[in-house]
Each structure stands twice: as structure tokens, then as C-alpha cells.
Amino acid sequence: MQTTLKPVDLDQAQALLSRLPDTFSSILRTARLQATPEGHISVSYDMQGSSKREVTATSPNEAIRLALVDVATYVTSSAQQHEAIQMSSCATGAELATEASSPERTLSKAKQQTLGASLPSRLKEHLEELAATEATSFADVCRRFVVFGFEDFVARSLYASPTSLFDVLANELHEWDDSNTEQVMVRLDPGHAVRLRSTAKEYEKSVSELTVLCVAHGIAMQRLLEPLESRVSKCKGAAVRSLVSKLGLQPFAVPLVSGILAGSVRAPRKLLPKLALALDAPESLLTTVFRGSFDRRLVPAFKAEGGKPVLSTAPATWTTAVKALSLSPEDAKALLELGV
């Protein structure tokens, strides 16, 4: 049976196609490629009518490919949503009011893709309880754990074998074993949705299977987060000198390590594994704690006379922080050899 397209469908598609070169050009002109503290490559860019977006991969070419897929997905899904809005213009006032009262639908529908997943009933009930406790939606809680678990999975896949990694994830999911499963829809931003699908294909897993594993892994990581934050907090202040010694650094590195714990300085590539060992935590989770410290930092009160005050929007690189200490060439070289 052949599907016959209406002339209007072809006309709309042709109109969208003719706009793509200019649309892609205007978006990709804002794209920036950079290395992340975790050793990945990210591409960030400004989407038209949206906030800044970012995709991350293990290589520059893969990051660029994901960025192109994300842009294409966003542009075409936005066009489909616009068409759907036009077709439903005869909706009743009550229906329109219902749509308006759902901020998740009105604000994020065009920006998210839906993945199907078969959650064990016990796991679904746990997520529903968390959503009720946090006064948020099941979708928000589920999305948070999927993304958290997936990002940690990707970070660990850089140094752990697939077999051992999936053994860990399977053991975490075993806690929620249930003979009953329930189908749920998980809504993710296009970047994460594309990466999760491609990762599932790479490891010969179904999208549903990897999604469920990431949910359970995200919950397991969240449980480790609170005690880790406590251990990091105990290393701040005067106690940081003991940590500096454990890391094999000289006393002049105290301000740098303090900055790392506060999230204001990015941990260099060679120092992060030592920090993970000293604090008994996965590198990826440690990076999450440091990033959270930066996000929660106190904003100082300014009384500027010579123009507007400037507040950093990202942690300082290790190189910048080292050079700011005005150390001797020998000491500075020793620290810079730890990476960027």
C-alpha cells in the first residue's frame, strides 16, 4: 500500500527545505568547540528562539556530528509543531486553557524527544514518590535520573570495559527487580536523546534497556552524592592542607586545591584521578560535586565605581589559576604539567 502525499504537504516540506541553508548557517555561526574538564569535546551554539545548547562527545568529529543532528532535529520538530498548531486552530477554549495551564507542554514540547521505556513497577513507584515529595512531575524526576545516570555512564566508558560497566549497572537495577513492568514515556532534549540512541546501538542494547539502566544508575549515583558532598566539605578550610599533602603537592598549591573544592577552579586532567582516590569517589561524580559548588557559590555584593562589576560565569582553568599565583618558573611548571 502506497502513501499518497498531498500537494500541500510537499509544498510545506519544500518551503522548510529552502529555509534550511540560512537556518543552519545562522545557528552554526555561533558554534564553539572546546574541551571539557572530563576530557570530552563539547560543541555549544545558540538556537534561534531558544537558549544556548550543547552536545558532548568523545571526539571532535563525533561532537560536530551530534551538533548537526541536534540542529536538524530541532529545526524539523519546530516546523512540525508549528504545523500542528495551525491544524488545531479550531480547538475549544477549554482545550486551549488546558494546554496553557501545563508549562511543561507549552515550554518544552518542541525541545524534547520521547523515548519509551519499560520500568519495573517498584522503580516507577519510587520515582512517583520522589516526585510527590519534591512537588514536581514524574517526567521531571525520571528525566533527571536518566540524564545523570547516562552522563556518568559515558564518563566511565572512557576507562572501564563495557562488560564491567554493564555488570555494575545490572547490579544497580537488580535492586528494583519486579515481575511487573510498566511502559513509560521519557522526554529528553534532542541532544541527549540522540546520544542515548546512538550509545544503545553502539553497545547493542535497546533504547528502553539502556534508559532503564540509566535511571537505576542515576539513583545509585544520587545516593553517593550526599556523603561525598560531606567529605568534600570536611576537606575545606584548614583541612585542605592535609588533602594537598595526600595529593603529593607542595604547600603553595593550597589555594588551587581550595579553588577546586569550591568549584571555582577546574581540576586538571592528571589531578582528578588523585582527588577521586583521596575522596573515595568516581571522577564523574566528583566533577558533579565541584560543578554544584560553583553553581551554589555566594554572589558578593559590589560597590563598583569604575564601571560594572564582572562575575565569572565559569570556573577558571587550571592554567589561568596557576599563572595568577605568580609562582617561580620551576613551581609553576610542576603544576602546569598536571594538565589543563
Can you describe what's shown?
The protein is mainly α and 340 residues long. Helix content is 60%, strand content 9%. The longest helix is centred in the N-terminal third of the chain and has 28 residues, at 60-87. Strand 1 and strand 2 form a beta hairpin. The protein contains 15 helices and five strands.
Provide a concise account of the structure shown.
The protein is mainly alpha-helical. Helix content is 60%, strand content 9%.
Index terms:
single chain, 340 residues, mainly alpha, 60% helix
Q: Secondary-structure element order, as H and E?
A: HEEEHHHEHHHEHHHHHHHH
**Structural class by sheet pairing and helices:** mainly alpha
Poorly predicted ranges (pLDDT <50, ≥5 residues)?
A: 79-110
- Count of helical regions: 15
**What is the terminal-to-terminal distance?**
59 Å
Sketch the major β-sheet: 3 strands, antiparallel
How much of the sequence lies in strands comes to 5-15%
The overall pLDDT, averaged over residues, is 79
